[in-house]
Amino acid sequence: MAIIAVPDALAIRRVEWSFDRPAQVNRSGWTMRRQVVQQPGPSLWSATAELAVRCGTDEWLEAEAFLIDLEGAINTFRLEASATPQARDDLLPAVDGAGQFGRSLRLRGGIAGEGLKRGHKLTVNDQMVSVSAPFVFNAQGVATVSFKPSLRQSPPDGAAVEVRRPSVLVALSDSAVGWTEDLGSVFQAKALQLEEAW
Question: Which CATH code of 3.40.980.10, 3.40.710.10, 2.40.30.290, 2.60.40.10 fits the domain covering 94-165?
């Protein structure tokens, strides 16, 4: 399995995100009371992404080559989670200390007064998480960020945390990929069914 680079000329026109957190819901037939049991195991991001490329151009050829390079569900690529940058270019935090698990991380190397809002995403250890409470770096460039879902693995001390353009490592959810050549179209959108891969 390889991580395939997304061509610069490839425009992702639209992304529909899904987040699956496994749980079992039981409802009493008498009282109609609902009880939820969280199932063990990690959550899963999935998406439907539409590629917008002009037919009969070099970008079209790049799009086809990219789809072939994915080799169905075998290879992966990084799908960006935000259409615009979430933070300054020079905001480059890192994990502050090894052995951190769960739904929060202590970060260092931030810029005093800068931070992220609830709902922003970040990527650590190739896992994308959603910020659950706003945070700001203090005068020493340190902050603790809370997020969901829980980390699958403890990141090493000093691991980079992507806050500007977070992404999720994805693969095609099907082994077959196809496209349509319609030279009468100004743009041709290709819908890709994707799921998180780790």
Answer: 2.40.30.290
